[in-house]
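User: Please fill in residues for this 247-position structure.
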């Protein structure tokens, strides 16, 4: 898995920057009730999406949380006084403090199913009655756009997708949350080129293909033989699910 403290400096530039952040924020905001006044953005990263969430809804106060120190530092520079260093499985706030909670590109990073359950449980605990939890699901599947790159990588070892929509919904239901909406948005600027995919392989993007592993080298060699090495293939399209705490 990538070291997000080391990744922080290049994170935004390597993942679509402001256009992708705008698409994500707009999709999240579209699932929030008009009366939302306090939002907690869990795993806020560099704050590039969090800042847009705060700017996109008049009168809404947004708090960001991230576990990686360097990510939280960048977020704090964008949103002074509103970012907390904390683990999504043990959030440092009292019950029912927020009208809404978001977690964008978080659950797929969990090492175990229990970690996902704990994160969903904490997000549910943060919500007041009537509050909304919004999260991305099925992230790995979004990156499979049917390209020649996907064909090369199809046989790679895979780890369990811990953010499958059905699993996340079951965990939400376990903690009293009910389905409340869906949305999709395009990861603008994230379409992979063969050369970029090889670079991602070399730096450990693919968890089951660690850098230097002979299997990773084999995939890199096949990717290097594809045409149009610098032409991005189609952008991924990400999925959001919303859940409401009754009351």
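Assistant: Residues filled in for all 247 positions:
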């Amino acid at each position: 898995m990538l070291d997000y403290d080391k990744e922080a400096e290049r994170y935004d530039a390597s993942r679509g920057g402001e256009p992708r952040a705008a698409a994500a924020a707009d999709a999240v905001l579209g699932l929030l009730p008009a009366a939302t006044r306090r939002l907690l953005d869990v795993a806020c990263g560099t704050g590039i999406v969090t800042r847009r969430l705060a700017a996109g809804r008049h009168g809404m106060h947004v708090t960001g949380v991230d576990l990686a120190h360097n990510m939280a530092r960048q977020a704090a520079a964008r949103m002074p006084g509103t970012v907390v260093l904390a683990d999504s499985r043990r959030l440092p706030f009292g019950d029912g403090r927020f009208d809404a909670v978001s977690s964008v590109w978080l659950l797929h990073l969990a090492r175990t199913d229990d970690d996902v359950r704990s994160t969903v449980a904490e997000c549910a605990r943060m919500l007041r009655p009537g509050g909304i939890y919004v999260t991305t699901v099925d992230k790995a599947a979004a990156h499979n756009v049917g390209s020649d790159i996907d064909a090369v990588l199809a046989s790679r070892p895979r780890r369990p997708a811990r953010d499958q929509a059905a699993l996340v919904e079951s965990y939400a239901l376990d903690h009293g949350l009910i389905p409340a909406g869906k949305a999709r948005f395009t990861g603008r600027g994230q379409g992979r080129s063969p050369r970029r995919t090889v670079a991602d392989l070399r730096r450990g993007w693919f968890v089951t293909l660690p850098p230097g592993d002979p299997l990773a080298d084999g995939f890199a060699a096949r990717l290097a033989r594809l045409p149009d090495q610098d032409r991005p293939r189609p952008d991924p399209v990400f999925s959001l699910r919303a859940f409401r705490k009754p009351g």
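For context: The chain has ten helices and seven strands.
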